[in-house]
Amino acid sequence: QVQLVESGGGLVQPGGSLRLSCAASGSIFSINVMGWYRQAPGKERELVATITSVAIFTSGYSTNYADSVKGRFTISRNNANNTLYLQMNSLKPEDTAVYYCNARGRETYWGQGTQVTVSS
């Protein structure tokens, strides 16, 4: 089992920044992919960014971003505390959504979600 706990959401004005965190615990050695997804009201959940690795917190990794966030968002990890981050800059109203942390290995795990609202 893997537990994921997100934090860092909130209300921000257009053009502002936020950093989301996802603390992973449990059987993290089994994880090969971690990422962030988001779901806006009335829309389907969509991929934001992912990290793919042989061992998510101990090996090198590759990243993937949705076209809508390239150049504005950065996904990263902290190996010392098994935490995944999403740095979000130049935020737009259309980035408003509930953001979910995701981990995949033999099974798929989701965090509880954190609300991000971009509004003036």
Question: Would you give an account of this structure?
Answer:
The mean pLDDT is 94. The protein contains no helices and 11 strands. It has strands spanning 2-7, 10-12, 18-26, 33-39, 46-53, 61-65, 73-78, 83-88, 97-104, 108-110, 114-118. The strands form 2 sheets. Strands 2, 4, 5, 6, 9, 10 and 11 form a 7-stranded mixed sheet that branches. With 120 residues, the protein is an all-beta fold.
SSE sequence, one letter per element:
EEEEEEEEEEE
What is the subunit arrangement here?
single chain
Helical fraction equals under 10%
What's the number of helices?
A: 0
How would you characterize the largest beta sheet?
7 strands, mixed
Strand-residue proportion:
over 45%
Shape: globular
Layout of helices and strands:
Blueprint: E1 2-7, E2 10-12, E3 18-26, E4 33-39, E5 46-53, E6 61-65, E7 73-78, E8 83-88, E9 97-104, E10 108-110, E11 114-118
Parallel strand pairs: 2-11
Antiparallel strand pairs: 1-3, 3-8, 4-5, 4-9, 5-6, 7-8, 9-10, 9-11
